[in-house]
């Protein structure tokens, strides 16, 4: 995917979204209609979402000294979900009380996300585009889960995420690790058996924790927590000390 073609998508302000890879956006946009089907092409994301939310809540509670018993702990906070798909993570973040903006490279995903949020009575500022869609804006919480392995230039993308982070804010990312385990589990098995749509991942573009840590540092951020995500056929996804399959990173300025 190093040779992937970058779109020349232009937002309403006329800025090119150079972070977007055209074929990646097309791949995920083709899945838009099934995004909210827990048995559809995004079934793995549905199973992964509770673990991601648990981690986000834990990190946000600690960093912002929130009330762990509150149902809306992010009230008064601004949040940005980058690579939101059709809103699987964005809607729970909104329900946690955040003033939420969410962006995705595929316009098809944004259309489905807007319709689903409207039906649920959730006011979310959905925008089609890359991280460039929020240039000049700052957010208390920025989430970017399972996205960096799909962008044109990961290091430049992290700089864009850092630019969207307010002083004192929190950035939370997740991505597959580039290990033999992730190749076997995510590509050979998951894509090979159709549990994940074929062509979703390119193992060569997976990023190790060390590489992501260097990108964060170059963007003026510091990783303060790294946690693995493990998978068991019997119990599903869980937080883990092992980073061999997939991992979450929390960073601050």
TrEMBL record:
One Pfam family in the UniProt entry: Methyltransf_23
Enzyme class, spelled out: transferase
Molecular function via GO: 2-polyprenyl-6-hydroxyphenol methylase activity; 3-demethylubiquinol 3-O-methyltransferase activity; polyprenyldihydroxybenzoate methyltransferase activity
One GO term (biological process): methylation
Source organism superkingdom: Bacteria
E.C. code: 2.1.1.222
Record keywords, A-Z: Methyltransferase, S-adenosyl-L-methionine, Transferase, Ubiquinone, Ubiquinone biosynthesis
Coiled coil: none
Protein name: Ubiquinone biosynthesis O-methyltransferase
């Amino acid at each position: 995917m190093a040779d992937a073609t970058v779109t020349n998508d232009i937002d309403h302000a006329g800025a090119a979204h150079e972070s977007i890879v055209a074929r990646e956006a097309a791949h995920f946009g083709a899945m838009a209609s099934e995004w909210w089907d827990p048995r559809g092409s995004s079934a793995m994301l549905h199973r992964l979402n509770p673990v991601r939310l648990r981690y986000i809540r834990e990190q946000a509670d600690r960093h912002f000294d929130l009330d762990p018993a509150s149902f809306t702990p992010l009230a008064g906070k601004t949040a940005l979900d980058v690579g939101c798909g059709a809103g699987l993570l964005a809607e729970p973040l909104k329900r946690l009380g955040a003033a939420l903006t969410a962006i995705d490279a595929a316009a098809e995903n944004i259309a489905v996300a807007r319709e689903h949020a409207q039906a649920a009575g959730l006011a979310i500022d959905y925008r089609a585009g890359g991280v460039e869609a929020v240039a000049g804006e700052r957010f208390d919480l920025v989430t970017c889960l399972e996205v960096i392995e799909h962008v044109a230039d990961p290091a430049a993308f992290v700089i864009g995420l850092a630019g969207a982070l307010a002083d004192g804010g929190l950035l939370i990312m997740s991505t597959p690790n580039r290990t033999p385990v992730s190749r076997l589990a995510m590509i050979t098995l998951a894509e090979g058996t159709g549990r994940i749509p074929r062509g979703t991942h390119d193992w060569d573009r997976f990023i190790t924790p060390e590489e992501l840590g260097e990108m964060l540092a170059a963007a003026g951020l510091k990783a303060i927590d790294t946690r693995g995500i493990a998978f068991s056929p019997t119990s599903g996804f869980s937080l883990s000390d092992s980073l061999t399959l997939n991992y979450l990173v929390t960073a601050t300025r």
